[in-house]
Amino acid sequence: MRRPWVALAGMSLVAIMAWLAPAARFWAGYTAGTLFWLSLCGGAAAFVAALEITGATWSPWVVKQAEGWARLFAVPALALAVLPFGATHVYPWAREPQPGLEVWFAPTSILVRDAFAVLVLGGAIMWLLKGRPGHRYRRAVTMAMIYATVGSLLAWDLVMSLEPGWTSTLFGAYFFVGGLYAGMAAVAIRGFTRPASFPAAASHDLGKLLFGGAMVWGYSLWSQYLVAWYGNLPREAEFWLRRAESGWAPLGLTVVAAAFVVPFLVLLSAKFKRSPRALALLSGVILAALWAEKLLLVGPAVRPHAAMPIGLTELVVGAGLALTVAGLLPDTAADRS
After folding, report:
1. pLDDT value at position 5?
2. Which H or E run contains 38?
3. I want to staple 162 with a disulfide (CB 3.0 to 4.6 A). Which of 202, 207, 286, 301 is the partner?
4. CA–CA distance, 33 with 322 (Å, rounded to integer)
5. CB atoms within 10 A of CB 225
6. 3-state SS assignment for residue 188
């Protein structure tokens, strides 16, 4: 059941922090939080598409939960529409033209391009969800292709552009794979409140998918770092060095440990995967790590020498966005059973 008062409380927290916090710090936290929820809800839709494409019938409950998260895509999409008001505090291209990229990174060009891309993805998600499970293969394939394309575009425009001159051909895939990983974790986390409706066999299968998600996410991260380390080119190394300074280095190690190392080790246990509540607790850790990862991507470009990467501003803004989304999360028939 939706709880509008919870969503209203979340939006109020964000508005209060926008008034009280330093502008640059607020907008960095807001950008990271918006990207996190945008990737999570889009990733949940991609998870629905993946289950449809593979003909998975092992748990209708999992499909319903993923659909519930996917239906919330409009919430972070609307939050993204507010971002242009604070773009000058976060993005270099919003303050001055970027040599050689004046056309691509023109503020108006980015606004129109990304707004259109998000609208197309949102439309594709709703089109997929209107289909009948088991009979929407073509819709699922189309949506998956659009998800990968739009996810890559947003990664280039809203993350890679934070570091002018830095490029990574794998970064788009890294971004949308992280969204799929977050979407699966979001499905698993709902098993904490309704473990009785989440069969142990389905929990085991979802745990195996999370194990695979952790490996693919970790692999895509390592692949980018290894090439930059081996090539040792200034424009590539600068991105990683900036995130290894001051307090950002401990945060980066924590993200890798919580989003990859811990899930990899814990999910080797079949007994752990068969417990819906244990899987939900681990998924909460994964989601917190992926939220911190978005802060790690955005924050160093705004506050390169921060001793405390995550403070009251980031926590309150993150909590506000989380409450906004949680208050609008629909209750499914599987939840009521």
Report:
1. 86
2. helix 23-53
3. 301
4. 9
5. 15
6. helix
Whole-number Å distance between alpha carbons of 154 and 131: 27
Amino acid letter at 5?
A: W
CA distance 228 to 268: 30
Q: Greater confidence, 242 or 262?
A: 262
User: With contact defined as beta carbons under 8 Å apart, do 44 and 70 qualify?
Assistant: yes
- pLDDT tens string 86-114: 999 999 999 988 777 788 888 999 999 99
What sections of 83-106 are H helices per DSSP? Answer: 92-95
What the block records as the tokens of 205 is 């299968």
- Check: pTM over 0.90? Answer yes or no: yes
* Separation of alpha carbons 197 and 209, rounded Å: 19
Residues 6+ apart with CB under 8 A from 170: 220, 223, 224
The label of the residue with tokens 């921060």 reads 306
71 CB-side CA count, 13 A = 16
Phi-psi label, residue 55: left if phi above 0, alpha if psi -120 to 50, beta otherwise: left
* Backbone angle region of 247, left / alpha / beta, with phi > 0 → left and psi within -120 to 50 → alpha: alpha
Number of neighbours of residue 56 by Cβ within 10 angstroms: 14
**pLDDT score recorded for residue 236:** 82
pLDDT band at 144 (very low <50, low <70, confident <90, very high): very high
Tokens of 223: 């692949």
- Please compute the mean of the pLDDT values over residues 279-294 and round it to a whole number: 96
- 68 contacts 1 by C-beta, under 8 angstroms: no
C-alpha dihedral, 261 to 262 to 268 to 273, nearest 10° = -140
Residue carrying the six token digits 């194990």? 211
